[in-house]
Amino acid sequence: MLKTILLGIVQGLAEFLPISSSGHLVLFQRLMDMPETGLLLEILLHVGTLSAVLVYFWHDWLEMLKHLFSSRTVRLLIVATLPAVVVTLLFNDWIESVFSGWFLGFSFLITSLLLFASDTLARRSGADRLRRSAHSENMCYGQALAMGCMQAVAILPGVSRSGSTIVGGLASGVPKRTAAKFSFLMSAIATLGSLVYKFGDLLEALQTGGAVFEGGWTAAVLGMIAAAISGYLAIRWMLRLIERVSLRYFGVYTAVVGLLVLCDQLFVGAFFERIL
Questions:
Q1: CA dist., res. 195 & res. 222, Å (int)
Q2: How far is 245 from 253, CA to CA, in rounded Å?
Q3: Global pTM?
């Protein structure tokens, strides 16, 4: 149960900090010698982070619902979501079969390269000179599409979704805080779509008993609550930090983690296999 709560905390923090939640879940499961999360726990952890976005930006969601057919933000979110939808429907099974497992170290390094490039891209696009109060309503459709394309790139297992989309926004001229906020709004749509996409599999797995995590429902629900709380705090921290702290610091972290994972995959793991 405590391990599941820790996974929930990791999921919530890493979902909104640009360090890859999926990659960190895999790492922590291996470090704690846990089996892979069942479909139920995986979905509940994402429900937790979805709840964090809905609660933190409740006023924005309410305004969008009030003006559903006239809100520019709604239209921008639709445009930003399309690339990931297309890639998921066409290539998701192939991506998971080809890139899962062995690609994790490279995914952290890809995230690191994107974060290292963020400051340069922001300066070239003029994003770092724009007003801090810039609102997502002022974004253009091309900027939303750029962030959407980067979200599609983040379908690769272990590549940070928030990091990729924020960098996509900076590269297209979106101010840092606006890029982060719009990235988090995008995550709610992406998570909701993922839950709908997996709902049929969940029902089938529940009928056969294959969806339940070995810790049981109690542990899974506690993990969801931990993900919601840590996700809420991560959103709050990230919106405050992003204008004062360079994303390169996160890039250093993901580079170190990526290199350690590669060393384990290429050398340490092989070394122990030979001994045993």
A1: 19
A2: 14
A3: 0.91
